[in-house]
Amino acid sequence: MTEPREPYQDETPAEIAELPREDAAVRDGIGEDDNPIPTWFNVSFCATIVFAAFYAAYYLLSDWSQAAQYQTQVARADALASQARASLPETNPYRADAAAIGEGQQVFATVCAVCHKADGSGLIGPSLVDPYWKYGHDDPTLFESVSAGRPGGMPAWQTQLGADKIWKALAYLETLPTSSEPGLGAPEGTASGS
Ligand code: HEC
User: Measured in angstroms, how far is the CA atom of residue 158 from the centroid of ligand 1?
Assistant: First the structure.
């Protein structure tokens, strides 16, 4: 049931908006026309190609890509972290400060005692008053244990307490009576005096 379409008779080609394709048959009254692609379309098409070239060059060569942004942010975070590490006090600034030790007691009682017991002898967390330390007990290491946490279940307290309260809690910890006996969690650590 397909018959060639009648060509236009009276119009000049310039008047004919849609020229029927010679080789296309009409189906259900619908034929195929052979229209030139509009200029605006060709121009935008070429523009996207030109744009893509500049875009690709800019994306790859500048710092604008996600990968480069990530690198920049990681570098900035690394710089901040090492700066923060460098500015940590090497020793506990509150060691002999009675008022600070009092505040430290508050912190220890409300935060640490849940896991380390009020006398520091250990509950969920290991004893902090025996001679055994898993990570060490010089000031920077103790601070690191408390501020950044430890993988065996010790939470990080830096955000919640801040450096000041951590040092105070540690200053208080030093005033607790120590025990020479291995306490809770002792086998994991190495005796290094308390
Ligand atoms: C949720 C329970 C919990 C709380 C709260 C907690 N700790 Fe711990 N802590 C642990 C556990 C568990 C470990 C052992 C981590 C490991 O072995 O990796 C630990 C380890 C430590 C260590 C390292 C001990 C070592 O042998 O090197 C120190 C120091 C410490 N805690 C101090 C504190 C202080 C100070 C606070 C209060 C600010 C506190 N902890 C609060 C559970 C807790």
Answer: 13
